[in-house]
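Progress against Task 2.4 (sequence-to-structure conversion) is shown through the following example record, which the project officer requested during the mid-term review.
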Amino acid sequence: MRRSRLARYRLVLAIGMVACAGLFASAASPADGKSQYAACIPCHGARGEGVAATGAPNIAGSAAWYVDRQLKDFASGARGREPGDRFGATMAAAVAAVGSDKDRAAVAAYVAALPPVPAPAAGAPTDNGRNYFNAICSACHAASGRGNETLGAPRLAGVAPAYLARQLAAFESGRRGAQIGDRLGAQMRAVAAMLPDARTEQDVIAYAASLKP
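Structure tokens generated for the chain above:
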């Protein structure tokens, strides 16, 4: 009986420690990430507005949970190490300089706190783009394009069209989403395959970029 009570106590203690660890991880301060973000400025800009010359998208106002997940993926090699992924390799090298999980969480919090910067226009939204976005993309990313943390789907609204096009091509080619264990990436690969042609892809991207971030 005593051993059983001790086992239950240890279980409760372990669960409590995990819960506390989650609280500490989610309590990252934007102020703590400001100095770390200096390494991101050459590509993403001081305001997180993105720099077209480097191919880096506007990230200001992106959800902290998503930014943190991408930084962890780049750091672990789950993203950015596929052959031909020049931009991903650049990001992986940059993330390596950030350091610990705590530092990456702080950078993510800082990015999330930046006011969103609208993406450059990608042409007038079309009915075709809206229809396909609502039929295929909105289930995970929401009709507003704001994303859904529960489903692991990031914000698409107002994201740079060139970046969206590059990521869609990466999912289609297997440079993203083909790694073992990448469940969310595999889902995106399946969704990307549902877009029937290049014209529709462009229309969907233009529509997503036109949504208010």
